[in-house]
Amino acid sequence: MTDVLTPAQRRLNMQRIRGRDTAPEMTLRRLLHAGGFRYRLHDKKLPGRPDLVFSRFGVAMFVHGCFWHGHGCPNFKLPVTRREFWEMKIAGNKARDKRTCSALLDAGWRILTVWECSLKGPGRLTAESIARQCERFISGRQQELEISGNRMASGPEKQTGARQKEPT
Ligand SMILES: [Zn+2]
What we know:
Low-confidence stretches: 155-168
Shape: globular
Strand order of the largest sheet: 1-2-3-4-5
CATH class: Alpha Beta
Strand content: 5-15%
CATH topology: Endonuclease, Chain A
Helix content: 25-40%
Bound molecules: zinc ion
Structural class: alpha/beta
């Protein structure tokens, strides 16, 4: 199949892929590790290949890019060209995330999702505050937690973390 992306789209694409293993994500991992929480990275045996797996606590953790996973936050912005292509792609990703979630929950895992906008961008939280929320979840009994940046528009989706409608 031929490459359907223009050079500009490909560049955008690569920037987004390179967003993995970013400095803020590494800081968060380091803090969790320092807090005594041991994890495996990218466990292929689990549905969705979670970014971090805390097996002792039965927790699968994902660090989701807001673009690829269609987070309804200011970090999510559809490119102006080929909107339909991107909309379909992201809808596909979201559907897959949903299936992954159900499969993990069915298998008795608890799910922690850290959205990229909590780690970087204008609404980011401190790594320490994210780490604290993660640790509380990991050692608790709650089934699911999502951590977002503090500039989420208010909407029907469940959110956690401080929220504000307008930047002050
Ligand atoms: Zn986001």
